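Lab manual, section 2.4: Encoding a predicted structure.

Procedure: take the sequence of the chain (627 residues), apply the prediction step described in section 2.3, and record the output as structure tokens. A sample record is shown.
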Amino acid sequence: MTMKLTLFTATLVQDSALSVSGLDRETSADQPFALVDGEPRLVGRGLKGAAVAMAKRFFKPLPRAVSDDIEHGVLRRSAWEFADAKTTGVPSVRAGVGIRHKTGARARGVLYDREVMPAGTKWQLSFRVDRSYAHDDAEFTEAEGILGYVLAEHWAKGRCWLGGGAARGLGWCHLDELKAYRFDNAAYEVWVQSGRATLPAALGSVPVVSPTHSWYFRTLDVSVSFGEYKPEPSEAAWGLAVGPHDTERTAQPTGDGLWGKPAWAIEAQTPDALATDRAMLMDGGRPLLPGASVRGPLRHAFSRQERAEGRVIKDPHIVQGKVGEDDLAGKAFGTVSRSSRILIRDANAEGEWAAAKLHMHAEDEFSAGSYGSAKRDAVRVLRGTFPVRIVVEGATREEVEPLVKLVDRQVALGALGHLPVGGHKTRGAGAGHWQAKPWATDDVTKVRDWTPPKEPTEQVKNGGRAQRTFIDRPAAADVWVRTKTGTIAEELTLGAAAEVAKAALGEKLVAWWCDPTIDLGLRTPPASFGRAWPAKDDKLQVEEIAFYAERAVWRAVRTSTGPRFVLIEELDEKADGAKQTRVVHTPAWLHGFRRFSSANTGQGKVLLREWHSGDKVLGFTLTQEQR
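Recorded output:
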């Protein structure tokens, strides 16, 4: 059976809120969520980037059929194809603030907000591995197995980090209902003709390959609990205060918890929302302890201890994040140029929880009464347990183990009540009871080696060395160029365009190229590149087409107002309407890729003749084409 492609499908479930930056639009948020036609969207390139980043942890070298870079020379198209994912729902706004290490006060100029999709949101995913872009079956099997390994062994097990702020609790996800389907030519035809609805039988298990590089994951689950205040030191301290965005601070949803009431209102029904001066942060119907609210105290406690021992630690808010590679806190918690290896997930209250709206005021020192207009109220969590997850990862044990010890030391401070989180830390809130489970070890061990396949090469006569050479290019020169534009009355087909172009260029043709219109009725992929004039009766519908002469080009494109063309021709001397430009020759390659809608162009060499006007390219033609 000849394999054509492998399809992976799954449901992505958010374990925490997700931030994916989109285009600026009419919103108050500093970082708006990606929306397309008003719908939240996980863009395919972002999903693929996360998958490639995870694959690079476990596979070295990564096949060029997965991800290529310029150091290999001519870039190759990836066999991994990721579709955008859609969901329903409306983003909410999450605030972020920088805290000064020494004072615990808000840092100037470090208050921001971002739109996020709430935890529990589900997205339908669809990924493909296309056999057409692998050199051979072995490379296709490797590319397919790497993606399967990432999805089945890591994303499905909760190690899926997407979007921004993963180290601060956002974008933690996992996969449900992961399935894989393999298509041969017959199954592919049935699938396409059914509108991508009829799938072959799913494989019994997701295809995977063993890792070729070691990586180390350590996971720590910590329960941070808060309870009614009691004088016994073994009990949890009283209350938690984590504020929401300013747009939500005056309205407090009551969620599914218990709320403190005055004696005269014990029997009263709890409303859906309360008016307050300072609400607490909620995610759905439960209070939320953001990963950032845990990560900040960890870093601050680490910095204080290092300073007490005489070492210099920079406050990132003073140096605008540029703490340097030698900063001890930067090595542990990341810098602007190096990601942190300590990741902390958001935590929603689990089980029963209770809260109350408390009335507060500032006291006048002389009268012992309320000071002026300083009477206010605020909401605090009185009882609740928050399951915080901390993951430490790295390429070597030497990198991971010091970070594990660092986290253990900070969690021990929390167990003693010396690591308050949230707001109002000096007013009786935030000093919860930290209870840590043993570390879970999820290390990945190198199992095998893999050698990339040899790239196709050309043989040259001098000694039989394999190398690729470009066409020799002439020196740049100044020339006169004239441009003519117009409309085409006929439908834009290959034959019709050829007739109009032949009348403008004459018989001298170097090559032609077109972008065919997708036509699912075609049984074979049409040619999109050639060196002879197409037949007049060729009815192939095209979106864009170009005919190249040695010193002129005729191009046409389909637009909303009908087909339009442009003719750019180089003149021997100055004429009316001509513009002086700089002609530059650029050698290039035909890579021989087979697109989904057209036949393989084949490999070859071309020499581009580009007309430059100032710092812009006016146009180009193919002055030579060699096979």
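Check your result against the sample. Residues 477-626 form one domain.
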